[in-house]
Amino acid sequence: MAITKNKLTSYLFALVATGMGFFLRFIIVHFSGPDLATYITFYPFIMFVAVLGGLGPGLLVTIISALVVDYWFLPPQGTFILDRSADIIGMALFIIMGVLMSVVAELYRRNNEKQNTKQKNIEQKLKESYVELEEKVSERTQGLERAKIAARNVFEDLTIEKIKQETAKAKEEAILLSIGDGVVAVDIDGKIIIMNKVAEKLLGWKADEAIGKIYNDVIFLEDEKGTFVPLEERPLAKAFTSPTTTTTTTTNLFLISKSKIKFPVAITVSSVILDNKIIGAVEVFRDITKEKQIDQAKSEFVSLASHQLKTPPTAIKLLTERLLGGQMGKFTAKQKEYLGDIRLSNQRMIDIVNALLDVSRIELGAFAIQTSEKDACAIVRSILDELRPVIDKKQLKLKIISPEKTVALMIDEPLFRMVVSNLVINAINYTDQGGKIQVECKVAKRGQTLGEKLLEKDYFVVAVFDTGCGIPEGQQSKIFTKFFRADNAREKQPDGTGLGLYIVKSTLDHFGGLIWFFSRENKGTTFYMAIPMTGMKARAVEKELIG
Fold first, then answer.
1. Whole-angstrom distance, CA of residue 181 vs CA of residue 80
2. Which among 14, 87, 102, 502 has most CB atoms closer than 10 A?
């Protein structure tokens, strides 16, 4: 094994240390005598060399020191012969002690080197950990800086979005405040979440007081008789059962304010839908006291005028019938033709006056609903039998669908006949020659859908289908409006009044019935008339017509 430079240095140092021990021995002998200095002067150097140089140099110093002592200091001097047992024992003890000291020193040195190596390893690991930690701190610092930048960007985006939302909210609030009608919005639990200024004024509630309360605890509805409207019959209740817009078409609903002021209202309710689920509803209402007063005055005027107008045509009718009956002598064919035209025109005038009187009775509540149990399907069949000559004259194909069993219903027969007759006559008038008409009577159960309408209770339904001209889509929303006639209807039947469907709808509204339709222009129309299976709501005459 090659001797390294450090090892060679250690061995040279061992020789130098031996020489120093030799020199020190002379000094000690000079002061204290030969016995003390024979071996003891070499021990420190052996230990010193062993500690610094290791086991090899320590053993070398021990052996050389023993030879030096034997050659120079033990008699006979100048030789390597030991002739005394004491010298031999001393020499052996010296060598043993030197070896032990070298071994102990070597162990100490190795342990020290091990500790130093361990310490260096620890320091190295600490240094590496420190470097790694610095790298991680640097990465984390960079990450935090990036996060800070990202957070700043997000904050700026949120700030911009917040400003946009606040601006949008301010616009919505401004729009809400500018609406001339009362607006109340509720959540799915019926709690008020929005109330505008007009609603505050009409209801007498402050928005802060009303918001969070149940709608039914704030807004009270009565009918024209002063009867509290049940919760399930309120317009708002319908918004939670079907995603549609409901508008009250009658003026018999009254709101009661916080201060017990009662006023008539027109109400429109719409569902609030999110992800195909109803999450609330919005109710828009307005005070129609002035409109109701004007409408009543108008109805009273029409009633008065109609009564005054009814007398002359009645007299003309009687006189014309006398003339045609030959009471005033015979007339030529041409004269009879003229008298026939007079009678037809006069009858049309009477029909118009009667229609106006019917409207007046409905709007003023001046008509009674007297119910009795009748077979509704039998009445429908009798109406069709009465109209059969007109149907046959136009060569229309009539189909009747009716259950074999009797459908007993509490109805006012004259009103029921008027409603059904009106629908069938319209089908006849607006269906071309050779067309088809189908009239179906049936009982429809709650939850059933007819003509895209979901029924909320059990109804007796009369459906009148025709292949006539249909109703233009853009005019369908006005079909139940007073005096309204669709463009194609006026072309086909110029003499209509535009009051028939208005009278039908108003009559049905008064006794709790329904009417709706499905129509496609130039394809045909189906009108549905429904009466609850509980029957018509009976009522007495509340007001008399002015006459």
1. 136
2. 14
Beta-carbon contacts of 398 under 8 Å, excluding residues fewer than 6 positions away, are 384, 388, 391, 436, 437, 438, 439
Q: Which residue, 48, 49, 43, 34, is CA-closest to 87?
A: 34
Distance CA 49, CA 480 (A): 126
- Could you give the CA distance from residue 400 to residue 392 in angstroms, rounded to a whole number? 15
Separation of alpha carbons 187 and 236, rounded Å: 11
| Alpha helices, DSSP H, located in 394-523 | 413-429, 487-492, 500-511
Beta-carbon contacts of residue 515 (< 8 Å; ≥ 6 apart): 480, 504, 505, 508, 527, 528, 529, 530
Q: What is the CATH number of domain 372-532?
A: 3.30.565.10
Spatial distance between the Cα atoms of 193 and 215, rounded to a whole number of angstroms:
10
Q: Is 198 in contact with 181 (CB distance < 8 Å)?
A: yes
The two structure tokens encoding residue 298: 């108008």
Please give the radius of gyration of the chain, using alpha carbons only, rounded to the nearest integer.
Answer: 60
Instruction: Give the count of beta carbons closer than 10 Å to the beta carbon of residue 313.
Output: 19
For 367-410, the pLDDT digits (tens) are: 677 889 999 999 999 999 999 999 999 999 999 999 988 899 99
pLDDT of residue 489: 87
| 468 CA to centre of own chain | 43
In whole angstroms, what is the distance from residue 326 CA to residue 285 CA? 62
Predicted model pTM: 0.48
Q: Are strands 514-520 and 449-450 parallel, antiparallel or unpaired?
A: unpaired
Q: Residue 48 CA to chain centroid, in angstroms?
A: 91
Report d(CA 498, CA 13) in Å as an integer.
Answer: 136
Using an 8 Å Cβ cutoff, are 65 and 18 in contact? yes
The residue type of 375 is D
| Fold agreement between 182-287 and 372-532 | no
Q: Are 370 and 538 in contact (CB under 8 A)?
A: yes
Which of 92, 16, 95, 13 minimizes the C-alpha distance to 54?
Answer: 13
d(CA 219, CA 298): 30
Residue 267: other Cβ atoms inside 10 A: 20
3-state secondary structure of 466: strand
- What's the mean per-residue pLDDT of the chain? 79
H or E element at residue 284:
strand 277-287
Q: How far apart are the first and last CA of the chain?
A: 145
State both tokens at 198. Answer: 């007009």
Tokens of 257: 């304010």
- Domain 292-364, what fold? Helix Hairpins (1.10.287)
- What gap in Å lies between CA 197 and CA 200, rounded to an integer? 5
pLDDT digits (tens, 9 = 90+) for 346-359: 777 776 766 666 66
Any idea where the domains of the chain sit in the sequence? 5-131, 182-287, 292-364, 372-532
